[in-house]
Specification:
This protein is mainly beta. The chain folds into two domains: 109 residues, Immunoglobulin-like (Sandwich); 115 residues, Immunoglobulin-like, CATH 2.60.40. The protein is 10% helix and 37% strand. It contains three helices and 25 strands. The protein has a five-stranded antiparallel beta sheet with strand order 4-5-10-9-6, with no helix packed on it. A five-stranded antiparallel beta sheet has the order 15-16-21-20-17, with no helix packed on it. The protein has a four-stranded antiparallel beta sheet with strand order 8-7-13-14, with no helix packed on it. The longest helix has 16 residues. The protein is globular.
Amino acid sequence: MIINKKIVLGITFFLIFSFIIPINANIDSPRKQMAEGVSVQDVICRDVLEKVIRTNGMPACVKPETIDKMFERGILLTTKVTKSNAEITTVPASSMSIVNFYVTDNDLNKSHRAVEVVSTQGLFEFKVNGIPIQGPEKMIETGYDTGQFYLKLELPETVNGKQISQDDIVLIKYLDESNLSGVQSVQVKSIPLTKTFAEIETSGGGSRIGHEFILRLYEPDANRDSRDEDKISISQLEFRSEGGIKTTLANPKFDANSNYLIETGPNTNIFEVQIKIPRQIDDKTIHIGDWYEIKYIDRTTPSNSDEKIIFKGKIG
């Protein structure tokens, strides 16, 4: 039998190459996985690496022999995130200074006939880029017997003299001391600030006078019916611009296709309306180059505090 040397060499090279390069070598980096919406707990590493959590809240994939060195240098939070019955859910924040989130832990639901207020002392650790910050003193249950508690984390303007920016990482660590097993469990949530905004977004020409565009608002508190689309009156959105212009989107000059921002589907939390920026409002002219802003005030937070969501644009 004649053996083709090129085929043999090709097979040999393939086997050597496959042995050197792990099968899952094309797994994205932890940062890229998180950018695509993967949580800290669900980030995966290649077979030859182990997942660790740095003190800045970011996961990393490192060689086993590197872990001890990271512990010694004090840059490692933990090598494992212990599963807990509790769950942390973040919702978009209304500004660079606020992170809204919920903790679901039925073990804290002691009274089934009242909305409970629980001290956070000893239950939470908060960090920005690995540096501890002060967190809220109390959390409030979202309703009777829900077992879900709302917290509002107000971030400092600076950490170690550096201004908070969208590239920073906020780490929320919940120490579940009420676990029935008697073993303290830990729930960690690491949030890039780029993902914590409740943004008013526009698409389709939002900066051009007379051009229709979609205004989009993420507002989970307005999602009251999970089986049908909810609505938000456009009169709740304020429009301001140069020249002392101040009105609401209910002004007929915006030529809205509805009197409401309408949820895009059952239980999506996303509301949309189609409008256009007019040339004039109340006899005042809008010019190219003028700044404008659209503001929505969320008055339905469990903390009973007003949260401002502002979109800023410039007329093109």
